[in-house]
């Protein structure tokens, strides 16, 4: 906005309206022409934005919310607004961010990062035509289900597998295809709500399966399931409560026993695992998440889990289990509605191959797995290397602090992992204003507050993140020096 200066008369409203320049005059401005060429925009798009800004200016003037004192100021104001609109439009809405929160699978920041190998595979497949639905060997139409099914079977021990666009879709498809208009027995303690207010009970209702709740919030016994079975029962569903814990006076029936009950009553036993661990993190002293392969070996007919949580791949829902059941899911019309694209399959295939290789080096190629398992001493080395250059940023002071990171993504809610980072203070900005400045940087830096100071946790940073962090502080240092 342009405001009245001291000892200067504001131009009257009617005169300001007369001073609004025509669209073609703004289009001829050298700054507008330069930004149009830089962003490769058409004259029609620029013209449209100019018209919108002129309309806004007219409304502001009539509402007495825009005051100018000199001829020419109004035209410059419109030019500046159009330039701002062009710059904002030219920026990507979806852009990289630095996750310095210490939450490894941060849902708001995109959960798992892909490995370099997965990214390379995505780029290669996106850049060229591919055999997505073409059987090269036989020379006729193929199925995209085959792209990753064998590798999923290899790493889970399942007879068959299917990939859909997320794990909520896995649950919905499974219930719709295998239990529509029939009863599904679920323990009351497992009727969870996940992010965004999505509830298992609501998904079940949408699938037209009939929910039968058994037991109580903290205790469900074998006889609860047995007493609930009727001629209308099609399935027993166990939902892994990965985003919360019920402790104390509790009891749950284990997979092996539920699978046995289902087998004896000719029912489907389906277990929704949510996070989808393909390795045993317990062996590394982290959490108690069930391993997909172990659940299938214990007798589950079907399991489903996410691809972008503990698995460390792209957002998908994976359904694995008995071949006969997987084939029924593949043939359902919803399988096409919920299918994933070629780039997602490329990222998933490469991620799964890292598990199939089985070596620590291969697993550490997956950023989520690496960030969960790497030692505090390794992170400390990164922090110390960062501190060696921190003296260059004279407007800031940094202190090394020990802390605890979390897994995130609705996974292992009680688990805290030893971590290290730095608190940041600025000579001219409060912690809150510094946090805002970093968060609104060209590449946003998202940290957290620790003892009322801004804290950057290095467990969730890789070498490229730290390099960007140096660049960000260097730029901010220069900006703040001239304030």
TrEMBL record:
Annotated compartments: Cytoplasm
Protein's name in the database: L-seryl-tRNA(Sec) selenium transferase
Protein encoded by which gene: selA
Natural source organism: Salinibacillus kushneri
Family recorded in the similarity comment: Belongs to the SelA family.
Keywords: Cytoplasm, Protein biosynthesis, Pyridoxal phosphate, Selenium, Transferase
Top EC class for this record: transferase
InterPro entries: PyrdxlP-dep_Trfase, PyrdxlP-dep_Trfase_major, SelA-like, SelA_trans
Main localisation: cytoplasm
Alphabetical GO biological process terms: conversion of seryl-tRNAsec to selenocys-tRNAsec; selenocysteine incorporation
Co-factor(s): pyridoxal 5'-phosphate
Catalytic activities: L-seryl-tRNA(Sec) + selenophosphate + H(+) = L-selenocysteinyl-tRNA(Sec) + phosphate
Pfam families, sorted: SelA (PF03841)
Cellular component per GO, a single term: cytoplasm
